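Changelog note: in this version the structure field was regenerated for every chain. One regenerated record is shown below for reference.
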Amino acid sequence: MSAPVVLLDACTLYPAALRDVLMRLAVHGLIAARWTNKIHDEWIEAVLRDRPDLTRARLQRTRDLMDLHAEGSLVTGYERRIKGLQLPDVNDRHVLAAAIEGEAEVILTWNLRDFPGPILASHGLRAATPDELLTGLIKRHRSELIGILREARLSLKQPPLAAAEYLETLHAQGLARACALLAPFLHQL
């Protein structure tokens, strides 16, 4: 079974812990991640607005590493599709255009209402939240996903987090159902 091709909306790349999990899923082949330079610009601008302690150079380095390690992730040439697309918020058309151009199956977003099912279905797409994605991956690839999350948790140094603290962090970032499924395996995280 091939990994689902998932276009990551900027809102899913904004929180550092979630961005790290999504990147690790891509690197380990559980998803085939897609994004654009415009999506990068959006999440970076939002982080800089909310986190003045971070520098553009540091986030640019993160962006560069994402592009390097998630092979084939950067979608280009999607701009020609934008004008012909209809969405409730015209500013989201670039996301749909990139998903189509990148041959995605799923647009991963917290803003489901901005991507109506019937419109996406007409392009062979659907929208899902990160919680839905992770819940599905836990059900299909539990041991591998637990290993990936353990790797992510152990990579944290400032500060290091115990398994329960790490799950709390993911829960706070909206992954409530996924965390509920992971709770019985806390000792493995």
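Spot check on this record: The radius of gyration is 16 Å. Residues 130-155 form the longest helix (26 residues).
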